[in-house]
Amino acid sequence: MKLTYYGHASFSVEAGGKHLLFDPFITPNGAAKDVDINQIPADYLLLSHGHGDHVADAPAIAKRTGATVIASAEVAGWMEQQGSANNIGMNHGGKKSFDFGTVKCVNAVHSSGLPDGSYGGNPMGFVVTAGDKSFYYSGDTALTMDMQLIPRWARIDFAVLCIGDHFTMGYEDAVEAARMVGTQTVVGVHYDTFPPIAIDREAAKAAFAAAGIRLLLPAIGETIEL
């Protein structure tokens, strides 16, 4: 699988011959000023929750690409109101098959409100399986014991975890999350975008290394092979 990082908690994964784009917050993010959202391919758009720093560019990308949106029922409904044509509302515990593989919606401990102030449903994470590989995206979340269930559903080749603290778990808790889901490779997201979530990158890498886990912090626009 190839993962491209677009800043904050936005990234895409090439899986099963399709482009899966997660939580696009690019245009309002000054650190991602060199990323042109009109050049980002998307067959599927997965939205973990309704906060503006996760859905800001979702309507524009969905309308341009015709991507299928996978989100909570409330976020999927909001996307339809914004002009997105293909929307699949799901909820915690639900699993669905697609032409690239499967998506299972899992618990996230956070909040969710949409940019217009309407109810954003429950925040969630995703377990994605395509062929013989699976990965876990935590979405915005605190560390939760529910993460121990994830290895029962799939062998996690890598996890995309928030590490910025303040609004989500920090890198210390993300180390425990990686242990719970049983992965040796983590891509860190949701850090350094705003002052409250600035991190010491070397300290974060050292904390993961001490646990025998590799922490990857790709540059904005960088593509890595996983």
TrEMBL record:
Gene Ontology MF terms in the entry: hydrolase activity
Family annotation (InterPro entries): Metallo-B-lactamas, RibonucZ/Hydroxyglut_hydro, UPF0173, UPF0173_UPF0282_UlaG_hydrolase
Sorted UniProt keywords: Hydrolase
Domain of life according to the entry: Bacteria
Residue ranges constituting the Metallo-beta-lactamase domain according to the UniProt record: 7-190
NCBIfam families, A to Z: PRK00685.1
Family statement drawn from the similarity comment of this UniProt entry: Belongs to the UPF0173 family.
Record's protein name: UPF0173 metal-dependent hydrolase GCM10023184_26120
